[in-house]
Design a protein that fits this description.
Strand content: 25-35%
Number of domains: 1
Shape: rod-shaped
Radius of gyration: 29 Å
CATH superfamily: GSPII I/J protein-like
CATH topology: Pantoate--beta-alanine Ligase, Chain: A,domain 2
Number of strands: 4
Strand order of the largest sheet: 1-2-3-4
Structural class: alpha+beta
Amino acid sequence: MRIGFYAKGFTLIEVMIALSVVAIGLMATLKAVNEEVSGANLTRNKMIALWVLENKVAEIRLNPLLPNTGINEGQQTLFNQTWQWQTNTTNTANTKIRKVEVSILQPNSKDKKDTLLTQSIYLGDLR
């Protein structure tokens, strides 16, 4: 039995081109999934950092005395991550009011440039 020149099926080149197209599509899909996961992690970290920031601001506001001027640093563990916080207290033109800037760094970060959130509050001495 003789097979004709125009046999049914795919040639090797057609199969290789089809596999290349599928591989490019899968790589694009993996890249999109990776970006979504990174975005979800950043959103989660910002949400937790906001809770740490709100805790620190509440702690500062609950103190009946005005905080001393200068920089204070500390850390808080939340959701098995260590969050670094920093407060910078400065005087204002009014001696009875102080500005406190609270900054939260990326979790497990040592570099002060990795600030994730910052909030400024003003505290007054009502006496």
